[in-house]
Amino acid sequence: MRNTFPGPNVTHCSSSFQMVSKASIVRPLALKCEWRGCTYTGTFSHHAQLRRHVDTQHIKPRSFVCSVSRCAKTFNRRDNLAVHMQQMHEDDKKPLHFTTGEGEMHASDG
């Protein structure tokens, strides 16, 4: 048996190999949010992006609350709250908090 690189549809060592052309490469996913009443019209290329959208827009929107007493701002993601704290309350050194669906307050992990 010659040791050569197998070409398209060549059986070699009892395995079938096929060359892949650029035209046969799978395109990214175009996942849409199908939550009833969702007004977002864009698509997501990864399941994780769609999951984050559902979590932050539908399941637990505005669950991150600014802990500064004179501020009533709420955010859908911890990183958005962190940016708010840095930009608006950099002198206030209170921990970040978020609420759960039961309305309890918990310190965030970070």
Automatic annotation (TrEMBL):
Keyword field contains Cell division: no
The protein's name in its UniProt record: C2H2-type domain-containing protein
Chain spans, region Disordered: 87-110
Transmembrane segments: none
InterPro entries the record matches: Znf_C2H2_sf, Znf_C2H2_type
Domain (C2H2-type) ranges: 64-94
SMART domains named in the record: ZnF_C2H2 (SM00355)
Keyword terms, alphabetized: Metal-binding, Zinc, Zinc-finger
Gene source species: Aspergillus keveii
